[in-house]
C-alpha cells in the first residue's frame, strides 16, 4: 500500500472497551466457549455434504445428464455454504481455540479450489482492517468496469452496471478457482503483503499449483475418464455450479458494505482516519435479515456482518446472542448501528448504490460520510 492507514480515537471514546467487556461477560456468565459448538459442527457436516454428496452420487449412480446437472446446482449451494459457514470461521480462528483444528477445517477451501493464504491476506488483513477505504480494501476496488466506491474510477458505461454486474458476480468463484489466486500471489508480493523469503514464496506457489491440479483433476479428469462424458458436458455442470456459488457469495458479501448509509471514508494526507476502529466498522457495515432463521443459518451469520467485523474470532453461531449487546452499547454511546430488516430491502439498497455510482451521483455519499 502506498499510504499507511492509522485510526485515531480523537474523541477518546470507551465504546469498544465497554462493548468487549460486556461480550466477554456474556460468555463467562453462560459458561460457554466463543468458538464452535455442536450446532456449528453439525452445520459443517451439512455444508460439506451439500457439496461432496452430490459429487459422489454423480460419480457412482449413473444418473441422466439432466439429473447430474441438477446435482451440480446443489453443489453450487454447497460451495457457497462452505465459503460462508465453514472455512470463513476457520480462517478467522473462530472455529476452535486450537489453531491446528482451524487449519484442518480451513482446508475445506483448498479442496474446493481456493487458497487460504491469499484469502486471509485479502479478507482478514485488507478487508477487515481497512473496511470500505478505497485503495486499501480490495473488496471495493474497481473491478473491470464495475465501481463499488465513490472514489472509484468513473466510466459512462457504468450507467448499466446495475445490469451487467450480475454477470461478473456469477463468474466470481469461477475466476477465484482459476486465475485469481495466481494474480493475487504476484500482486501481494509486489505490494509487500507477502514478505516471505525466496524458498517460502516458491513453496507457496507450488502449494497453489498442486491443489489447483487436485481440484481440476476430480472436477474434470475423473468425470471424463470414469463417466465417459465429453468436456463440454462436464464444463456445463462445472459452470452451472460456479454461477450459483458466485451469485450467492457476491451478493451476500455486498449487502453488508455497499448499501445505503454505509460510509466510504478517505484518509487525510497523513493517512489518518479520524475515528476509532470499532466505530469505523459499524459505520461501514450493515446487518440484514436477522430475524430470518434460514438466511442466518445458511450464510454463516454474514447477515450479522457488523458483529462479525467487531468480533471476527467469535464463531458465527453466537452472533444472534451478541447482537443485542452490540446494539444496546452502540445506542448508549450514540454510535451508528446499521440494519436492513430483510434480504430484499438490503438487496434493493445495494442496487440503489450501484445505480448512484453508475450515474456518478455522489451527493448522497458526501452526506452519508459527513454524518458518519
Query: How do the strands of the widest beta sheet line up side by side?
Result: 1-2
In helices, the fraction of residues equals 55-70%
Distance separating the two termini: 25 Å
> How large is the count of helical segments?
16
Radius of gyration: 21 Å
Uncertain stretches = none
Q: What overall geometry do the principal axes of the alpha carbons give?
A: globular
Order of helix and strand elements from N to C terminus:
EHHHHHHHHHHEHEHHHEHH
Number of strands: 4
Description of the molecule:
There is one protein chain. With 372 residues, this protein is mainly alpha-helical. The protein has one domain (6-371). It is 63% helix and 3% strand. The protein has helices at 15-29, 38-60, 65-85, 87-91, 99-111, 116-129, 161-170, 172-190, 198-227, 231-257, 277-283, 293-298, 305-310, 319-333, 343-358, 363-371, and strands spanning 6-7, 272-273, 286-288, 338-340. The strands form two sheets. A two-stranded parallel sheet has the order 1-2. The relative contact order is 0.15.
List the helices and strands and how they pair.
Blueprint: E1 6-7, H1 15-29, H2 38-60, H3 65-85, H4 87-91, H5 99-111, H6 116-129, H7 161-170, H8 172-190, H9 198-227, H10 231-257, E2 272-273, H11 277-283, E3 286-288, H12 293-298, H13 305-310, H14 319-333, E4 338-340, H15 343-358, H16 363-371
List keywords for this structure.
mainly alpha, two-stranded parallel ribbon, two-stranded parallel sheet, 372 residues, globular, 16 helices, single chain
Amino acid at each position: 500500500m502506498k499510504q499507511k492507514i492509522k485510526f485515531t480515537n480523537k474523541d477518546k471514546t470507551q465504546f469498544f472497551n465497554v462493548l468487549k467487556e460486556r461480550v466477554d461477560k456474556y460468555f463467562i456468565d453462560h459458561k460457554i466457549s466463543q468458538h464452535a459448538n455442536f450446532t456449528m459442527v453439525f452445520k459443517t457436516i451439512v455444508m460439506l455434504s451439500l457439496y461432496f454428496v452430490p459429487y459422489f452420487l454423480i460419480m457412482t449412480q449413473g444418473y441422466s445428464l439432466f439429473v447430474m446437472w441438477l446435482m451440480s446446482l446443489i453443489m453450487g449451494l454447497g460451495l457457497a455454504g462452505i465459503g460462508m459457514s465453514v472455512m470463513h470461521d476457520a480462517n478467522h480462528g473462530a472455529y476452535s481455540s486450537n489453531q491446528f483444528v482451524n487449519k484442518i477445517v480451513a482446508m475445506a477451501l483448498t479442496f474446493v479450489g481456493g487458497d487460504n493464504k491469499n484469502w486471509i491476506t485479502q479478507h482478514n488483513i485488507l478487508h477487515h482492517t481497512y473496511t470500505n477505504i478505497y485503495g486499501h480494501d480490495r473488496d471495493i476496488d474497481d473491478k473491470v468496469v464495475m465501481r463499488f466506491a465513490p472514489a472509484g474510477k468513473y466510466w459512462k458505461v457504468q450507467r448499466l452496471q446495475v445490469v451487467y454486474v450480475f454477470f461478473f458476480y456469477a463468474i466470481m468463484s469461477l475466476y477465484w478457482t482459476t486465475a485469481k489466486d495466481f494474480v493475487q500471489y504476484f500482486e501481494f508480493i509486489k505490494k509487500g503483503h507477502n514478505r516471505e523469503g525466496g524458498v517460502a514464496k516458491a513453496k507457496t506457489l507450488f502449494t497453489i499449483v498442486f491443489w489447483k491440479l487436485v481440484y481440476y483433476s476430480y472436477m474434470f479428469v475423473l468425470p471424463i475418464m470414469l463417466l465417459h462424458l465429453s468436456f463440454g458436458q462436464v464444463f456445463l455442470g462445472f459452470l452451472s455450479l460456479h454461477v450459483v456459488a458466485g451469485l450467492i457469495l457476491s451478493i451476500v458479501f455486498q449487502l453488508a458494505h455497499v448499501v445505503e448509509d454505509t460510509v466510504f471514508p478517505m484518509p487525510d494526507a497523513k493517512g489518518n482516519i479520524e475515528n476509532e476502529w470499532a466505530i469505523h466498522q459499524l459505520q461501514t457495515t450493515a446487518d440484514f435479515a436477522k430475524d430470518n432463521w434460514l438466511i442466518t443459518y445458511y450464510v454463516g451469520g454474514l447477515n450479522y456482518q457488523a458483529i462479525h467485523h467487531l468480533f471476527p474470532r467469535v464463531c458465527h453461531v453466537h452472533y444472534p446472542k451478541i447482537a443485542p449487546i452490540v446494539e444496546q452499547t452502540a445506542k448508549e454511546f450514540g454510535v451508528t448501528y446499521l440494519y436492513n430488516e430483510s434480504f430484499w430491502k438490503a438487496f434493493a439498497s445495494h442496487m440503489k448504490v450501484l445505480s448512484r455510482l453508475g450515474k456518478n451521483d455522489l451527493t448522497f455519499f458526501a452526506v452519508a460520510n459527513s454524518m458518519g
